[in-house]
Structure formats: C-alpha cells, structure tokens
Design brief:
- The chain is of the alpha+beta class.
- It folds into two domains: 3-68, no CATH class; 85-269, no CATH class.
- The protein is 24% helix and 26% strand.
- The chain contains ten helices and 17 strands.
- The longest helix has 12 residues, at 23-34.
- The chain is globular.
- GO terms for molecular function: phosphatidylserine decarboxylase activity.
Length: 277
C-alpha cells in the first residue's frame, strides 16, 4: 500500500488527511520551497523525473520553486495559430467528458457538477451539453500554461478550498475538483464561444500565479504558472462549438488519459454553431 492509498483508503489515513490538505501546510511548504535552502532538492528531482534540462532556461534559479516553475526555451512549445483549431493550454494528461445535465461522469472517478465547480448555477447552464476538458499535470510536466484562445477575458475568479492530490487514488475517493482551491477566467472567443479556463491547485501547491486580470487574452500567450505539486487545468466549452479529436474521445471513454503538449491541436471549431449570447 502506498502512502496516498493509506491516506485516502483507510480510516486513520483520512484522519491525517485533513491537516495535510489544508492551506496552512501548503503555505509552510511554499515558504521553504521559495528559499535558497530548498535548492538541494533540485538535482534528485531532475534525476527522478528524467527532466531534459537542455529544453529549459536554468539561469538565475535559486530555489526549488524557481526550478519547478522554470521557463521552456523558445521554440520548444510551438503554438498552432490556426483560428479554427483548439489548442492545449499546457503539457499534461488529457481526458475529455461530455457535460450531461450539468454533471460530468468520468469513468472510475467521482462525478461532479459544473455548477459546484464554478460556484454558479447560472454560469454552469451555459455549458450544459458541452465539453469538459481535464488536463492533469504531473510533477515532471512543464508547469507554465497559456491562453487557449484569443478574446475578451473577464477578471479572475478565485474559489478557496483544500489541496488534495490530483492523482487517480484521490479522484476515485473525493470530488477533488470541487473541493480544491481553484481560479478561473471566462474568455469570449470568436470561434469557440465563451470558454472557461480554470486552474486547480493540488497537494502542496502553494500558489496559482496568473499574470493578468480583465482585458484581452491572446492565444498562446503565457497566462500563468503553478508552483510545486501536481496540478490540473480544466477547460469548459459550450455545446456545438468544437469537435474534439476522435482519438482523444475514444481514449477518454476507456478511462485512458492522452499525453499532450502546450500548443498542440486537440480539436477544431464546428462550422454550424449556435449564436453566442
């Protein structure tokens, strides 16, 4: 039995889980990982996760969090700029689910409602019949992310919560995405309707750092980054706006996540779309 299985699948483990998923421990860990004292963790982390250092900018790194949120070198994540193509906003493991009656039912995972995810029944109605795209980032992934498309963006809406891990062992036991701290913005696009792009924190993620508030989103421009821990980005798309790649839909139906990289095409706009309200 792993540590996470003990925490989520046993009575004594769940007793210990509450303080471990609380914001206080995350803040304490965050302060340490921001300090130069944490730099000794970098080399074993690189080795354990087989990170290719030549892909990244590694100058001026003084702490573990500096390294964890490192920038990738120019050209390593080309962004598809075709306006009819829907791109991935990050590196990660992608699952796509149809939103039925406000609810997402992942295979072998806990279901959750879009209204509880957004904390808004009115806004959730916009996405009934649409798609919920879940990008799960592991610690070895690149932890900066971009805007999924260009358009007018709202302010950032922050929803406080706990910080469960986003690994499958927790997803099966806890409605993680509706309990964890998260932040989202709405992007009014020309080809894909109004997209909700959300960042979800996870165990020991002290901060979700978004660069901009209300204004203009630009496809491929860096939106922000996560600091230490596994994390998740969720993209909600209205009905009749996009055709997701068939291989992704088939894999999701079999509960298989698809590895994707930031800027990669994961679908295309439908020619016949409903009028954007």
């Amino acid at each position: 039995m792993t540590i996470l299985e003990f925490l989520y699948n046993t009575v004594p483990g769940r007793f210990l889980l509450k303080p471990l998923t609380g914001p206080r421990l995350s803040r304490i860990c965050g302060h340490f990982l921001d300090s130069e004292l944490s730099s000794f963790l970098i080399k074993p982390f690189v080795k354990q996760n087989a990170i290719q250092l030549s892909d990244y900018e590694t100058t001026d790194i003084k702490s573990f969090n500096d390294f964890f949120s490192r920038k990738i070198k120019q050209g390593k994540r080309p962004i598809d700029m075709e306006e009819n193509h829907l791109i991935a906003p990050c590196d990660g493991l992608l699952s796509v689910w149809k939103i039925k009656e406000n609810t997402v039912f992942p295979v072998k995972q806990s279901h959750y409602t879009i209204s509880s995810l957004l904390h808004s029944k009115k806004l959730a109605q916009r996405y009934h019949g649409g798609y919920c795209l879940v990008y799960r980032l592991c610690v070895n992934h690149y932890h900066r992310y971009c805007y999924v498309d260009s358009g007018q963006k709202s302010r950032n809406f922050f929803i406080p919560g706990r910080l469960h891990t986003v690994r499958p062992v927790a997803l099966r036991e806890v409605p993680v995405f509706t309990e964890n701290s998260r932040e989202y913005t709405l992007i009014r696009t020309e080809k894909f309707g109004t997209i909700a792009q959300m960042e979800v924190g996870a165990m020991l993620v002290g901060r979700i750092v978004n660069h901009e508030e209300k204004g203009n989103a630009i496809r491929g421009k860096e939106k922000g980054y996560f600091q230490y821990g596994g994390s998740t980005i969720i993209v909600l798309i209205e009905p009749e706006q996009v055709q997701v790649r068939e291989d992704i839909l088939q894999s999701s139906a079999l509960a298989k996540e698809v590895p994707v990289k930031m800027g990669e095409v994961i679908g295309h706009a439908l020619e016949h779309k409903r009028t954007i309200q």
